[in-house]
Amino acid sequence: MDTRGPRPEQHVTPAHTPETATTSAHQLRNPGFISHQIRPEFHLSPGTWRGYDYDDLARRTFPVDTRIVTCAPDLPACADDSTPAALAPWPRPSGDGSGDDAVRWVFYTSGTTADPKGARHTDRSVATPAVGFSRAVALTPDDRLPLVFPFTHVGGINILMALLMSGAGAILVEHFDPTTTPGRLADLGVTVGGSGTPFILLYLELQRRRPDVPLFPRLRVALAGASPKPPQLHEEVKRELGGVGVISGYGLTEAPMVTFCSVEASDEHKATTEGPASPGAELRIVAEGNDCRLGEVGEVWARGPHLCRGYVDASLDAQAFTPDGWFRSGDLGFLDDEGYLTITGRIKDIIIRNGENISAKEIEDVLYGHPAVADVAVIGMPDRRAGERCCAVVVTAPGHDPLTMGTLTEWCRSQGLMTQKIPERLELIDELPRNASGKVQKHNLKEHYVEATALPQG
Fold first, then answer.
1. pTM (2 decimals)?
2. How many distinct structural domains can be found in the chain?
3. 154-166 vs 123-137: helix crossing angle, rounded to 10
4. In terms of Cα–Cα distance, which of 175, 168, 112 is closest to 140?
5. Is residue 2 one of the residues assigned to a domain?
6. Which pLDDT tens digit goes with each residue over 269-289?
7. 132 and 273 co-located in one domain
8. For the range 43-48, what are the long-range contacts, defined as Cβ-Cβ under 8 Å and sequence gap of 24 or more?
9. Which of 9, 50, 183, 354 has its CA at a distance of 20 to 30 angstroms from the CA of residue 276?
10. What is the CATH number of the domain that holds 430?
11. 291 and 146 in one domain?
């Protein structure tokens, strides 16, 4: 968060804190689109949770033939078909293993467009990443690992399977509270901390308030990922929180945990890479249709048992998968001579904030609807806590007063934009830079405003 105040042609106003955005992440993403595409037989609802009526949301957005099954712990037992106990039993796999690759999971990712994409996973494609993760972290029954992010995220299911495989204990957190949850994790003996870069940064902040008292006395490793990690984060964690420092991995909803750094890796690899390919996974770095040399940046391609079985909307498969089974990630990176992957950027125009993929186009479409906006580009700006934050670069329409952070935020909320997608920074500009074909040169905007932010005040 920039606390130096606004400068001419630069308006910096925090719309919300990372903690606020994290607590609002329980809201369902595009429930109407997803439910009508999947058309589920039933939907598990928590009822009313933290003041929000999820039963009512489900009734308003799900198909009329979907049963709404309320699964709240304080409900009295009943004998009708509205309780989970009355559901049909789980279909057991066949004795010959022929059912191992049946699609049993669908995880949605918003990708680079407003509509989410449903990745079709099997038990094998969900369990295989868990094997690599368990080995990389060296999980044992003595470990305690918190689940502090949305459990229904593909990473949550992967980690659950890793815990079951290793016998490690799970610390379940219903709602992450930055003031009370860290202390509870310490009381329960957390040994593998983090669950993402934003959490590690919070833990470092708390540790620095009481440098002589270990925040997590039993911590042996911290997990980054989800958001870009600062290169210095590993050494800070190793020095201040303890343990072997930070390890992280790389994956997507379509191909979870295809790499993961090991607790045995060098400090350099822990600090700057996402590890080598996980067991069973293959990686390629491709530019203009050709495989890149070691150290050369290109698009990351992955193949192996980690991959989903395509999308619910099969028309999307051809663009994402090659005929011989490689998944085109849309992310940029390179491999070193030991096979460790470093991610350098993204082809897809998304912003990763607190581990959430945010479509720049979706926000731009909302802002274009404001009468005072003649042109707009939304870019991701580096943020130490959240990984990135959204910055709206706006050209004011003739005859209108320029937008302010207040009017921008109010407009986005009135248009139904989710809280975590509302830009936290507003820049006013006379004209957006474009190339000869008319495409906005966002990399130039990002470089300019990152440099401007770093300049000292006069």
1. 0.71
2. 3
3. 60
4. 168
5. no
6. 999 999 999 999 999 999 989
7. yes
8. 43/67, 43/68, 43/69, 44/69, 44/71, 44/84, 45/69, 45/70, 45/71, 46/70, 46/71, 46/72, 47/71, 47/72, 47/75, 48/72
9. 354
10. 3.30.300.30
11. yes
